[in-house]
């Protein structure tokens, strides 16, 4: 009985993810106002009956897509930090997690081109939550930040800067984005966090 329940639950999760993957593609291709439940069915390959068992309206679908994107980001960050917990590596680890998160949802690049206003509005509505998440992820590194210790910036301000850089990286096409290594190195030096800051400090001390 337990095996059957687990199988059904796994299938339901896979269908839910399939619907949301298709919904993101449909939203990117059709735009917020032309996007319909029929488009979701076409892109995800599910019937209308199946779709409506999971979602009552396109607004519910969009809300679920947003929730999935945020959950995925948190999971990528949590996993990456667990694998490399050293505070000196924290900005690099966060940056790499953002890259993996972006790669998981390639349709986001098209969505930022077709619906830039929608993307920015949604990010703005979740900005404080993203800052709180980033401050949580940065916590041990912030405790060692020279700029924070000197009172030049607060922990929240650092988290805001990192979130804004992450948004810029996520919404710009790869060809227009600064490389993640350059971005990480710049932030480490600017904020006094990580290996770049440590090396700079050693050079100054020498």
Describe the structure.
There is one protein chain. This protein has one domain (2-205): Tetracycline Repressor, domain 2 (Orthogonal Bundle), CATH 1.10.357.10. The radius of gyration is 20 Å and the shape is elongated. Mean pLDDT is 85; it is low at 1-8 and 197-206. It contains 12 helices and no strands. The chain is mostly helical. It comes from Nocardia jinanensis. This is HTH tetR-type domain-containing protein. Residues 36-55 bind DNA.
Q: Gap between N and C termini, in Å?
A: 68 Å
Q: Classify the secondary structure makeup into a structural class.
A: mainly alpha
Query: What level of helicity do the residues show?
Result: over 70%
Query: CATH topology, which one?
Result: Tetracycline Repressor, domain 2
Radius of gyration: 20 Å
Q: What is the name of the CATH superfamily?
A: Tetracycline Repressor, domain 2
Our estimate of the beta-strand percent is: under 5%
CATH-derived architecture? Orthogonal Bundle
Largest sheet geometry:
none
Assign the CATH class: Mainly Alpha
Number of structural units classed as domains: 1
Q: Tally the helices: what do you get?
A: 12
Low-confidence parts lasting 5 or more residues at pLDDT below 50? 1-8, 197-206
What is the mean pLDDT?
Answer: 85
Helix and strand sequence: HHHHHHHHHHHH
Features:
Tetracycline Repressor, domain 2, disordered N terminus, 206 residues, elongated, mainly alpha, disordered C terminus
Which SSEs are present, and which pair or pack?
Layout: H1 2-30, H2 37-44, H3 48-54, H4 58-83, H5 90-104, H6 107-114, H7 116-125, H8 127-143, H9 146-149, H10 155-171, H11 180-191, H12 194-205
Helix pairs in contact: 1-2, 1-4, 1-6, 4-5, 5-11, 6-7, 8-10, 10-11, 11-12
């Amino acid at each position: 009985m337990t095996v059957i329940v687990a199988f059904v639950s796994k299938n339901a999760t896979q269908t839910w993810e399939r619907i949301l993957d298709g919904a993101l593609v449909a939203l990117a291709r059709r735009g917020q106002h032309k996007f319909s439940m029929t488009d979701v069915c076409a892109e995800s390959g599910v019937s209308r009956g199946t779709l409506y068992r999971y979602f009552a309206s396109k607004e519910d679908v969009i809300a679920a897509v947003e929730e999935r994107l945020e959950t995925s980001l948190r999971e990528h960050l949590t996993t990456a930090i667990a694998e490399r917990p050293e505070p000196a590596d924290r900005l690099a680890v966060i940056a790499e997690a953002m890259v993996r998160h972006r790669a998981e949802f390639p349709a986001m690049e098209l969505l930022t081109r077709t619906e830039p206003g929608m993307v920015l509005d949604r990010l703005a509505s979740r900005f404080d939550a993203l800052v709180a998440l980033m401050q949580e992820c940065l916590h041990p590194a912030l405790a060692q930040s020279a700029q924070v210790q000197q009172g030049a910036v607060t922990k929240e301000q650092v988290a805001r800067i990192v979130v804004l850089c992450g948004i810029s990286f996520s919404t710009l096409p790869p060809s227009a984005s600064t490389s993640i290594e350059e971005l990480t190195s710049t932030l480490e030096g600017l904020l006094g966090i990580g290996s770049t800051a440590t090396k700079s400090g050693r050079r100054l001390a020498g």
